[in-house]
Amino acid sequence: MRLLIIGGDAAGMSAASRVKRKNPDIDVTVLEKTMDVSYSACGMPYNIADPNRDMEKLVVRKAEVFIEKNRINLLTCHKAQKIDPDKKIVTGVNSNKKMFSFSYDKLLIATGASPMIPDLPGFDRPEVMVLKTLENGKMIKFFIKKKNVKKAVIVGMGYIGLEMCEALTRRLVKIDMVKPGPVFLPWMTSDLADVIKDELRVNNINLYPGHKIKRIDPKKIGISVVCDNLSLDADLVIVASGVKPNSHIAVEADLKTSISGAISVNNTLLTSNKNIYAAGDCADAIHVVTGAKCWIPLALRANRAGWAVADNVCGLETRLKGVVGTAVFKVFSLEVARTGLSVKEALEAGFDPAEIFIKTRSRAHGQPGSQTIHVSMTGDKKTGKLLGVQMVGKEGVAHRINASAVALHAGMTVEAFSQTDLSYAPPFGPVWDPLLTAANQLMKKL
Amino acid sequence: MRLLIIGGDAAGMSAASRVKRKNPDIDVTVLEKTMDVSYSACGMPYNIADPNRDMEKLVVRKAEVFIEKNRINLLTCHKAQKIDPDKKIVTGVNSNKKMFSFSYDKLLIATGASPMIPDLPGFDRPEVMVLKTLENGKMIKFFIKKKNVKKAVIVGMGYIGLEMCEALTRRLVKIDMVKPGPVFLPWMTSDLADVIKDELRVNNINLYPGHKIKRIDPKKIGISVVCDNLSLDADLVIVASGVKPNSHIAVEADLKTSISGAISVNNTLLTSNKNIYAAGDCADAIHVVTGAKCWIPLALRANRAGWAVADNVCGLETRLKGVVGTAVFKVFSLEVARTGLSVKEALEAGFDPAEIFIKTRSRAHGQPGSQTIHVSMTGDKKTGKLLGVQMVGKEGVAHRINASAVALHAGMTVEAFSQTDLSYAPPFGPVWDPLLTAANQLMKKL
Questions:
Q1: Contact B197, B184 (CB under 8 A)
Q2: Around Cβ B51, how many Cβ atoms within 10 Å?
Q3: I want to staple B316 with a disulfide (CB 3.0 to 4.6 A). Which of B62, B165, B311, B402 is the partner?
Q4: What DSSP assignment string belongs to B43-78?
């Protein structure tokens, strides 16, 4: 059997390696448009933060290893351009401008997502960068050093923009963040978003939400991001205003797409064509809480979906259950985490949400080093079910969120969750875990 | 209505305060044998560690506050001795040797647990102490300073003994640990127990398991714990060899007891007498995984049970679901956590357990500061269900365990747990959370 994979990142390489482990007889070819496979993309901001750390350290496994050890026909600098689902052929072009063509029995589209770049004058300037591929990361790092960057503008206020704040601050770069939308973190309950805003303020990050961006102008030295009533000078602009699924090649092949244009897949990761799978940031998923399709492009799902495709290709039927949208990121000394639905998302999904917000402590009474933990929890008044949790704090957030994520998977009520037996020891939390205190409070509103 | 409560610790005071909040008309009397109520008993080792921290800092709420603000008739130094369930009267003696007698409509027994002290010569010496009450804690702290303690023997190798290792080491006290049983931590899988043993060795703690203790002898300076083939000199001996439920008063009143002699309660915390509740360390609980009665005396359950009694006394019927035995403690730089059943416990409960042990990392590839995380996970071959998890590591253990605790409450299979959407960001873990990696491995054995 010939398995062809478009895209050699998390989903694509997970699938390729696992297929070869499970059934070495399957012929596996991977077409990767960049030079790099198998690196920790999420680790790039933390690497950029440290001028002495080589970015190659983020490479988990080199292409040669996949080729020689795993016997995968891995072709970097090969950009797939077209799928012919009837002839079962993928054509494209490599970096030497040579056309190529591969036939397949089974195809996996793992083309990932791309940064959204405003279609405005000046966004094509060399000082304007995105952080998606390892090449992007290397470029930013090189540029900071070479040009002695002192001032950056980050366009967008999402995870990556916020992670880059810490990275650039460590490089002594002053930062302005700007975006057209008026609300700083629209998916986050405002009490928690305010905590993050305070942390950014303490770290001298200037926030300019609600400013329509018009263009980027060159200046005598550096550039300037020109907005309504505002111009922000910079040596470097990082565009981090979201991503979109790379589903163009699937659309052209008449495959079904869904929310946000992601490729629609069933729980075996099959697309609307029975010989074509899709996995990773280009594909959709079921949201366990709503039961509806969602597009939440994150690394764990990409790896898990890659494995599931491999198992299905090898005849070991595997069905994925779906996601609950758990995410965590770091903003300077803050851990920020979420799982499930925000109140707005819950309303949109037809729930009747009630929300509470509490402040509690990260350690027991009388323990030094205790920090404030902020928790927002949302439940459904109709069914009593837990719908979502958001947390912000300087410690004890990143892993704590997982207890509520599992509760969402289990479809627990807030009452059932409030009765769970969570860990307690003075250095790690209060007797009543912050999540339990939140659940106890929320029950009164349901 | 008159509610009488025997015991003014976690369960008793939680119940008393909540009853007064929900229904101020209920007359609440608490009989506490010591002088102290409402303090963080679990915080004592951490307080002892720091000579400059006042132990009164562990008091969450003073007795006067309960009396004046909450209008609770709180009587410290009042030791209840006898319950007459027919006349509904409790009699006892106070610290002035005066007899007292109180009638009740509803009674809560919240007498807690007591340290088990070997009935051997010398264990009544003043240098031999336990750590249970605040008075015990103060005494140990005072003794360390006054007697300039340089050498201690800890009898027992449980949570409290291990926590005291760090506390005493910080006070520059050299430590030997000794116990009769041959296995260091019998409930823990040996691969993980070995990690803890190494941590103790690095911190110069000497372990002597498998030594039958014969007596404690006085020496010219200090004392000596005399065992088979071993004598351990010390200025101070801490006895931390487990606790037993204070159920004597309940037994005398013909109330039913169960496992380990704990007072048997139903899911509303009622004992075998319809006017008498029991809660906290003196009472039993249902283990969610086995469905059987268990006795796992821990702080969260005590507080939760106290609240549930209060609600039931106030006519707001509340049923508790049970525990899964989640516990966490700190051994020097290690976080040690468990939830659910060990393999041995699973076998005893009639399961057909399979177990895996993995080593993984606390942070993503290429992140500095990453530590080893050791995970053991047990599942049932017959049903595929998750049965228990144990973890040891220098970071990312204490809260991570809770995801598996919730999965146990939900009765999840290992396969369902392996599909949960847990958080990922490079500073906080690998893409596949250690629990997911463990679940993926365990599935191969089920």
A1: yes
A2: 11
A3: B311
A4: GHHHHHT-TTS-GGGGBSS-HHHHHHTS--EEETTE
Residue B316, chain A, CB below 8 Å: the answer is: no
Rounded Cα–Cα distance for residues A87 and A89 (Å)? 6
Which uninterrupted H or E stretch holds B174? strand B174-179
Q: How far is CA B12 from the centre of its chain?
A: 16
Residue type, B88: K
Q: Under a CB-based contact definition with an 8 Å cutoff, are residues B269 and B308 in contact?
A: yes
Handedness of CA B111, B114, B120, B121 (dihedral sign): negative
* Partner residue opposite B419 with nearest CB, options A299, A321, A427: A321
Q: Which of B4, B20, B15, B21 is nearest to B276 (CA)?
A: B4
Contact B46 A398 (CB under 8 A): no
- Chain A contact set for B298 (CB, 8 A): 424
| CATH (domain of A162) | 3.50.50.60
What is the distance in angstroms between the Cα of B410 and the nearest Cα belonging to chain A? Answer: 6
Q: Are residues B81 and B121 in the same domain?
A: no
Q: What is the pLDDT of residue A38?
A: 86
Statement to judge: residues B189 and B94 lie in one domain? no
Q: Cβ(A371)–Cβ(A393) under 8 Å?
A: yes
Q: Which residues of A, range 38-97, sit inside 8 Å of B by Cβ?
A: 40, 42-43, 46-47, 50, 53, 57-58, 60
Domain containing A84: what range?
2-35+76-114+243-313
d(CA B325, CA B292): 13
What is the DSSP code (8-state) at residue A151?
E
pLDDT band at A320 (very low <50, low <70, confident <90, very high): very high
Question: Residue A419's Cα: distance from chain center in Å?
Answer: 32
Residue A362 lies in a domain: yes
Q: Are A282 and A250 in contact (CB under 8 A)?
A: yes
**Amino acid residing at B375:** V
Instruction: Reply yes or no on whether the pLDDT at A285 is more than 90.
Output: yes
Same domain? For B149 and B135 the reply is yes
Q: Is A335 on the interface with B (CB under 8 A)?
A: yes
Domain assignment present for residue A43? The answer is no
Interface contact B423, partner A, CB < 8 A = yes
Same structural domain for residues A167 and A235? yes
C-alpha separations of B99 from B6, B90, B111 in Å: 15, 11, 19
ipTM of the prediction greater than 0.90, yes or no: yes
For residue B115, which of B137, B147, B148 has the smallest C-alpha distance? Answer: B137
Last residue of a domain, one of A313, A336, A358: A313
> What's the helix, strand, coil split of chain A in %, to 5?
25, 30, 45
Measured between beta carbons, the chain A residues lying within 8 angstroms of B38 are: none
Same domain, yes or no: A106 and A131: no
Out of B239, B267, B289, pick the residue that ends a domain: B239
Residue with tokens 């059987």: B292
Residues B92, B145, single domain; the answer is no
d(CA B23, CA B190): 51
* CATH value at residue A429: 3.30.390.30
pLDDT tens per residue across span B19-57: 999 999 999 999 999 999 988 899 999 999 999 999 998
Residues A106 and A255 occupy one common structural domain: yes
Q: Do the domain assignments include residue B51? A: no
Domain count along chain A: 3
Residues A141, A135: Cα–Cα separation, whole Å: 10
Q: Are residues A437 and A363 in the same domain?
A: yes
Per the prediction, chain A carries an average pLDDT of 97
Of B401, B419, B436, nearest to A423 by CB-CB distance is: B401
- Answer whether residue A40 is part of any domain: no
